[in-house]
Amino acid sequence: MVDLGVDVGSLKLKNPIMPASGTFSEELADVFDLDLIGAHVTKTITRGLRDGNPTPRVCEVSGSMLNSIGIPSKGVGYFIEKVVPFYQQYKTPLVVSISGNTADEFATLCSEVTVEGVDAIEVNISCPNIEEDGKAFAIRPSSTYDVMCKLRQATHLPLWAKLTPNTGETPEVARAAEEGGADALVVANTILAMAIDIRTRKPKLGNLMGGLSGPSLKPIALRMAYQCARATNIPVIGCGGISNAEDVLEFLIAGATAVQVGTATFIDPAIMPKIVTDLEALLASGGYSSVRDVIGSVIDEEQDPGVVFMEAAP
Amino acid sequence: MVDLGVDVGSLKLKNPIMPASGTFSEELADVFDLDLIGAHVTKTITRGLRDGNPTPRVCEVSGSMLNSIGIPSKGVGYFIEKVVPFYQQYKTPLVVSISGNTADEFATLCSEVTVEGVDAIEVNISCPNIEEDGKAFAIRPSSTYDVMCKLRQATHLPLWAKLTPNTGETPEVARAAEEGGADALVVANTILAMAIDIRTRKPKLGNLMGGLSGPSLKPIALRMAYQCARATNIPVIGCGGISNAEDVLEFLIAGATAVQVGTATFIDPAIMPKIVTDLEALLASGGYSSVRDVIGSVIDEEQDPGVVFMEAAP
Amino acid sequence: MNAVVRSSALEPTNPVAFERDLPVISNEPVNGEYRLMILSAPVELLEQCHAGQFFHLLCPQIGGETPYLRRPMSIYGFYPEKGELHFLYKVTGEGTRALSHLKTGDTLNVLGPLGRGFTIEDDWDHLVLVARGVGLATLAPLALEAKRLGRKLTAICSARSADVLMSVEYFEALGARVITVTDTDGTSSIENLEAVIEQLVALDGVDAFYTCGSNRILRLLQKIGERHDIPGEIALEQQMACGLGMCHCCVRPFRKDGGQVNLRVCREGPVFDMQEAMPW
Amino acid sequence: MNAVVRSSALEPTNPVAFERDLPVISNEPVNGEYRLMILSAPVELLEQCHAGQFFHLLCPQIGGETPYLRRPMSIYGFYPEKGELHFLYKVTGEGTRALSHLKTGDTLNVLGPLGRGFTIEDDWDHLVLVARGVGLATLAPLALEAKRLGRKLTAICSARSADVLMSVEYFEALGARVITVTDTDGTSSIENLEAVIEQLVALDGVDAFYTCGSNRILRLLQKIGERHDIPGEIALEQQMACGLGMCHCCVRPFRKDGGQVNLRVCREGPVFDMQEAMPW
Ligand SMILES: Cc1cc2nc3c(=O)[nH]c(=O)nc-3n(C[C@H](O)[C@H](O)[C@H](O)COP(=O)(O)OP(=O)(O)OC[C@H]3O[C@@H](n4cnc5c(N)ncnc54)[C@H](O)[C@@H]3O)c2cc1C
Ligand SMILES: Cc1cc2nc3c(=O)[nH]c(=O)nc-3n(C[C@H](O)[C@H](O)[C@H](O)COP(=O)(O)OP(=O)(O)OC[C@H]3O[C@@H](n4cnc5c(N)ncnc54)[C@H](O)[C@@H]3O)c2cc1C
Ligand SMILES: Cc1cc2nc3c(=O)[nH]c(=O)nc-3n(C[C@H](O)[C@H](O)[C@H](O)COP(=O)(O)O)c2cc1C
Ligand SMILES: Cc1cc2nc3c(=O)[nH]c(=O)nc-3n(C[C@H](O)[C@H](O)[C@H](O)COP(=O)(O)O)c2cc1C
Ligand code: FES
Ligand code: FES
């Protein structure tokens, strides 16, 4: 028996497997017992109602996908009346993902969702910030720090900052989030991408561009998880292209304390509980008695530390 | 007969297919007649001798690859004495890719390679710049502009700026390169990524991290090519994951004037001349008489222009 | 009587969507464009199926095809008595090409049944379906259901030419009346279709319309339905990722309570009220 | 006589590397760990082959395996007279697992012959090869070459146990003397190997050593070679991408002119001067 429990800051998870925001909802209860996984993470909500982006909202790119859903939201009222009670049926901690167009709106929502039944708040700072000409907060360290400070003041709950790969400054942004008060980092959101139908000459997504997720994203997200684990002292939750227990182990070795599974659930809706089982077997076969022993166990000392944060020269 | 000729600024190419820097060399003459492609692009050279990075320098990640070669270089002398004469055997234009640790060193090399036999200079501003704490020049608009101004003064040859995907500011960097004097943009270099061997717990690359190339990169590079074509008035040369004529067409429709083929050559060394043939057939079947008619023909007007440069919200 | 049975999302202890590897019994071309795939399925899965629902298929990576996401496919037939699940599909791209490579004895991973199927209210006696092209695949099991419930069904089948008219025999074998209209002999025009349907309404009375796929047919049936106050349902398509209602990829706009709402084709659909549907 | 023939990079009009789909004649296990694949190849390709060279194989995406890059594999045998190209391989990961799924009649895309093969100078009369494990695959064709040139060859084959000793018959059939050493009976220790080789040098005289793969054997042969001034060559491995010399992925360090240089295994190798090679 391998102990799969991990601590994400003050929050104890029975295992390190949880869904990625936007790829999970109440409906997955049709497929498996939702108490089998380490945490529940909701789709990002906004304060007010939002329709979301034009269709098509999804397309396939070699072995991965693009999406541009655009955060349709039924607003905070619906969330508190309907969604929280649903998840309160379960023993598993509930993490609510939130977002806002401005730092103040974001902070207001953050305090509004600080309610009984919510165990942590994931702040999706990878979404456009209208005060920074449409750039996501998490593209720059300064805007990351500013928004995190406001969010920190708005809640006593654990605050997880979800970072974007659309930046050249991952370690700096990670440190800014930590300094701004993040209790953990979720690494990472989708990377901005595009596909065009060569027959119609139209973009394959209604919104022209969208986020790349799935296996293609994995080596990028893994690099970011490693950078963030090295750059900060807060737990890192890996996310991006994770499809099986081997991928989970790779993120844990790189320094992640837990992981989120997104697109893989679309391919196999029961993948999360399967990964929990497989991870236990994989750790057992490696002689581990606790998953905590592999976290951050990457062997990188032989390397010149200079190369670690250097932009790898091609 | 479809006219495959394109103009990259003042440089006329017989077809829009050329190799990506670092994935092409004299040795490919063993496999096909090098006059079949639109241009020859050398591996990036530096002024002095460089050994390159520790091995392993390459690894595979789902359907794509990571590399961290580190620009081993025999220096500018060898290049001028051996490499330029080799390519002078061909009628095809020669593009030399160069790089430097500092803007001044870079500019010196730029003027040193401004010699008979070189038709354009591709400046790899995606490599680490020791004056900007190891960040690549092309991560920020300001460092891009500064280095491009120096390079512009160092040569009268066409100057192609090769951009990096490791930034959250692609349109701004593209405009900075244009304003700094670039005649064309090569979009893009590899994106920083990582892979770990879960058995040995060691990074799969000797340098810990490396650049992701191949099909996984395509939707990211395509998005950047589109952004750059919209943001500037100079030709864009698409690069990233291009493996067949359909991929080429996708980049041309997005706004690229020509394309570079990299990793695909490792899978099929004769892919470039095959793509030239297939592209002609594809255009003919679409009723085109000139490849120039498809460039930038993406149908995006129906879209709210606001979304175009906005970070797509997931 | 309602053909739809789904567990509410609030019953996590009673999962209803199956994810299974099912053996291929056969997978043969039906005519130049369509193929029929027959899978062997367990009875408990087949008993959950209803006309209008779909399965989300994990198309195999074979024959050089590398589909990634699942592909939605309507239930063409489900036979608990013989343990068979049927799909009728058209080869249009990577996923369906991959499906076409499956041979007897291979397995296909399916997820379903998913979505909300067709409604047949207790007092709906004469049902009329209007189908074109692969839409037949979706509407065919409605005939099965109508027969089981002892209702009268008229199937108006529209196609490019007579030789791609499928399922006519299928409908007739189930005791349905079949009216065929084709482009080649000009009978499939909207004007002629309107005349044919108006005649049905006038002579036999119609209690409900069912259709799917064609924008022009939708507009026509909305008009006729409104004119005579006849209810109807339409099965719609949209690109999907999860198929379960999680990702909100598959929405379409509907008229509801004077406004417009986005509904998920995979969850609130694929079958929707015909008057609420918006032509596209 | 030099076993290496390559067009210089300055002869673009004379391509020497073939990229071909070759039919699989057979692909069978040789013992628990190794498989022999025989491809049907055109004579003009086989005539370009030399012992020590390799092919870069585009492993198929079958059996659930999705290898992407090509895999380097030494020529185990090449027979222009019967139109056959042989590879001996060990299944270690995705690519070689995919290879193992190939059946008679399938095709495999190969690129080659690539790299610089073994040298056999005109005055080298007694050749000694020391091979361990899959290294045999690389050294085997040297025996063929030696026989064609009428040289004497001694093959020292080292393995974990007698039952994985391969190619012994192969070497013997080519008239080579074979000495086997194994871990199970303790004869494969470096000390014993040194004694065996020193005896060969003392009794028969040795003109050249050939080896590949093992670090310990390399050190031993470097020592013995230096002691008696006997030249030698070693075939080395490294991760590869292009296989043609373009990407500089596959470098290893070598001692040259008092300094250290990086050479490409795919181009300057895979066969290198034994004294220049650096143990790893
Ligand atoms: C509820 C529902 C039921 C369906 N029932 C049937 C059926 O019974 N028979 C049949 O032949 N087809 C049916 N379709 C359409 C079928 O899903 C598509 O033809 C199929 O997904 C095409 O996949 P492809 O890889 O071959 O084509 P590609 O064009 O290569 O597909 C690319 C992507 O677009 C998606 N896509 C393409 N066309 C459609 C479409 N019309 N609807 C939704 N997504 C699409 C694919 O799923 C895939 O993700 C149905 C669609 C839906 C939504
Ligand atoms: C010149 C040369 C000749 C070779 N000849 C033979 C031979 O005759 N028989 C044989 O069984 N093996 C030979 N090898 C080793 C063979 O290339 C590897 O076993 C094979 O690439 C493993 O691929 P995989 O996908 O099965 O394993 P994986 O471990 O999944 O491979 C992952 C990646 O690492 C690379 N890799 C793994 N091991 C090696 C290795 N030892 N050398 C180079 N790259 C490697 C693979 O090519 C692939 O890119 C040779 C290697 C070289 C360089
Ligand atoms: C359809 C879809 C919707 C998503 N919606 C959100 C969202 O609302 N908020 C968010 O922070 N991330 C969202 N994401 C990003 C995922 O949470 C995750 O970061 C990303 O998909 C990478 O993980 P994966 O490769 O495992 O899918 C979404 C991803 C997908 C595919
Ligand atoms: C092995 C390798 C070496 C590379 N070396 C260079 C280089 O020296 N200079 C450079 O600008 N880009 C270099 N690149 C990046 C490519 O030129 C190209 O931008 C990238 O690989 C994306 O294209 P692709 O997906 O078609 O390979 C290298 C890429 C690879 C795979
Ligand atoms: S496909 Fe995911 S919600 Fe419908
Ligand atoms: S593998 Fe590319 S240079 Fe050797």
From TrEMBL, chains A, B:
SUPFAM superfamilies, per the entry: FMN-linked oxidoreductases
GO MF, any single term: dihydroorotate dehydrogenase activity
Active-site residues, Swiss-Prot/TrEMBL: C127
Pathway it works in: Pyrimidine metabolism; UMP biosynthesis via de novo pathway
Record text on cofactor binding: Binds 1 FMN per subunit.
Family: Belongs to the dihydroorotate dehydrogenase family. Type 1 subfamily.
Entry keyword set: Cytoplasm, Flavoprotein, FMN, Oxidoreductase, Pyrimidine biosynthesis
Reactions catalysed, as given in the entry: (S)-dihydroorotate + A = orotate + AH2
Stored InterPro entries: Aldolase_TIM, DHO_dehydrogenase, DHOD_1B, Dihydroorotate_DH_1, Dihydroorotate_DH_1_2, Dihydroorotate_DH_cat, Dihydroorotate_DH_CS, Dihydroorotate_DH_I
Taxonomic source organism: Aquamicrobium aerolatum DSM 21857
Cellular localization per UniProt: Cytoplasm
Dihydroorotate dehydrogenase catalytic domain sequence ranges: 6-283
GO biological process: 'de novo' pyrimidine nucleobase biosynthetic process; 'de novo' UMP biosynthetic process
Gene: pyrD
Lineage: Bacteria, Pseudomonadati, Pseudomonadota, Alphaproteobacteria, Hyphomicrobiales
A GO cellular component annotation in the UniProt record: cytoplasm
UniProt binding sites for FMN: S21, K43, T44, N124, K162, G214, G240, G241, G262, T263
Short name of any one Pfam family annotated for the protein: DHO_dh
Residues reported to bind substrate: K43, N67, S68, I69, G70, I71, N124, N189, T190
Task performed by this protein: Catalyzes the conversion of dihydroorotate to orotate.
Gene3D superfamilies according to UniProt: Aldolase class I
CDD domains in UniProt: DHOD_1B_like
Protein name stated in the entry: Dihydroorotate dehydrogenase
Cofactor section: FMN
UniProtKB/TrEMBL annotation, chains C, D:
GO biological process: pyrimidine nucleotide biosynthetic process
Record key words, sorted: 2Fe-2S, Electron transport, FAD, Flavoprotein, Iron, Iron-sulfur, Metal-binding, Transport
Iron-sulfur listed as a keyword: yes
SUPFAM superfamilies linked: Ferredoxin reductase-like, C-terminal NADP-linked domain, Riboflavin synthase domain-like
Positions of [2Fe-2S] cluster binding: C242, C247, C250, C266
InterPro entries named among the record's database cross-references: Cyt_c3_hydrogenase_gsu, Dihydroorotate_DH_ele_sf, Dihydroorotate_DH_Fe-S-bd, FAD-bd_FR_type, FNR_nucleotide-bd, PyrK_electron_transfer, Riboflavin_synthase-like_b-brl
Cofactor: FAD; [2Fe-2S] cluster
Presence of the UniProt keyword Ribonucleoprotein in the record: no
Cofactor note: Binds 1 FAD per subunit.
Binding site for FAD: R71, P72, M73, S74, G95, T96
GO MF terms held by the record: 2 iron, 2 sulfur cluster binding; flavin adenine dinucleotide binding; metal ion binding; oxidoreductase activity
Every FAD-binding FR-type domain range: 17-120
PROSITE patterns in UniProt: FAD_FR (PS51384)
Domain of life (superkingdom): Bacteria
Recorded family membership: Belongs to the PyrK family.
UniProt protein name: Dihydroorotate dehydrogenase electron transfer subunit
Source taxonomy: Bacteria, Pseudomonadati, Pseudomonadota, Alphaproteobacteria, Hyphomicrobiales
